[in-house]
């Protein structure tokens, strides 16, 4: 096994920029071979400019999908992702804006439909976090921002997309290991991730009759811009799990391919745990 490397200390503000990270995260493993699992599909990915969302976007493109990416304002990261998708021979639509605004969510879905004429896969993935060690430090303003960013858009986007989704289409939501085991310094964030878990389960039963599947991924520590933009100390990041190291986005993207593709045709309401071996139930 490779020896665990220590990341150099670095600090950015939210939203972090992937192109400034040292080292830059691994997006897709060199030997990942696409096999047309998402041929002709259109995927709509929030937070697809960087981190886990970028990895999902590039994996989906390698499997034959066209991609719409929603991001806040990281134009350079988004442009890099677009180029990576085009290198895979697929098209990429970039839409920048604030998912906290339901009107924007509706217009983003509309723009995607106008461009690609359809949507088959929704990946709800954008999020923020503001670590605080004491409850007293979580202001009403922070609480509102965390919930309005991390869970409200899951409703807005899904609601706007639903009229365009059909049998065989799929929704994938990004939760977190913190939803399952809690996090003493991410009380509000982990609460939104718990909400995403319940949202996924409830929506999966609501949409099962339409044969639209709703699943999720619950990552552990993954090396992304969110981490360098929100944690003060990086060098110990992700070492506190059985594998003793953080994961790379390249180790997360393939799970989204599985949940988006026909390979998981009888799976709905479930989560895949990508966390270096932390056992936290289902
Ligand atoms: P990231 O910073 O690369 O991605 C988050 C994205 O959210 C940003 O690119 C940003 O453009 C977007 N975003 C934030 N606020 C927005 C807003 N108001 N409107 C539009 N877009 C907005 O970081 P990441 O770690 O890849 O995060 C992706 C998902 O993974 C998040 O849901 C996060 O909670 C989850 N997650 C990450 C980790 C980890 O260790 N990195 C662990 C568990 C879960
Ligand atoms: Mg980003």
UniProtKB/TrEMBL annotation:
The record's listing under Pfam families reads: adh_short_C2
Per UniProt, the keywords (alphabetical) are: Oxidoreductase
Going by the entry's taxonomy, the superkingdom of the source organism is recorded as Bacteria
Which PROSITE patterns does this one have? Answer: ADH_SHORT
> Transport: present as a keyword of the record?
no
What GO annotations for molecular function exist for this entry? oxidoreductase activity, acting on CH-OH group of donors
Q: Which family does it belong to?
A: Belongs to the short-chain dehydrogenases/reductases (SDR) family.
What name does the UniProt record give this protein? NAD(P)-dependent oxidoreductase
What is the native source organism of this protein? Flavobacterium hydrophilum
């Amino acid at each position: 096994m490779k020896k665990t490397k220590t990341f150099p200390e670095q600090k950015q503000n939210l939203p972090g920029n992937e192109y400034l990270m040292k080292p830059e995260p691994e997006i897709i493993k060199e030997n990942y071979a696409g096999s047309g699992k998402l041929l002709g599909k259109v995927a709509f990915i929030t937070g697809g400019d960087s981190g886990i969302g970028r990895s999902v976007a590039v994996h989906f493109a390698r499997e034959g999908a066209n991609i719409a990416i929603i991001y806040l304002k990281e134009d350079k990261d988004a442009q890099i992702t677009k180029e990576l998708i085009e290198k895979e021979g697929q098209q990429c639509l970039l839409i920048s804006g604030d998912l906290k605004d339901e009107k924007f969510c509706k217009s983003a879905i509309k723009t995607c439909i106008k461009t690609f004429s359809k949507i088959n896969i929704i990946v709800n993935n954008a999020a923020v976090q503001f670590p605080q060690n004491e409850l007293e430090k979580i202001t009403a303003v922070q609480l509102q921002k965390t919930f309005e960013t991390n869970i409200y858009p899951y409703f807005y986007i899904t609601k706007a997309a639903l009229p365009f989704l059909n049998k065989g289409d799929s929704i994938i939501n990004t939760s977190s290991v913190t939803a399952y085991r809690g996090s003493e310094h991410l009380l509000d964030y982990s609460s939104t991730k718990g909400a995403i878990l319940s949202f996924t389960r409830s929506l999966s039963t609501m949409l099962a009759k339409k044969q639209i599947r709703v699943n999720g991924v619950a990552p552990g520590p993954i090396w992304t811009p969110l981490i360098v933009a929100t944690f003060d100390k990086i060098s110990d990041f992700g070492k506190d799990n059985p594998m003793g190291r953080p994961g790379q986005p390249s180790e997360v993207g393939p799970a989204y391919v599985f949940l988006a593709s026909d390979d998981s045709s009888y799976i709905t309401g479930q989560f895949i745990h990508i966390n270096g071996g932390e056992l936290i139930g289902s």
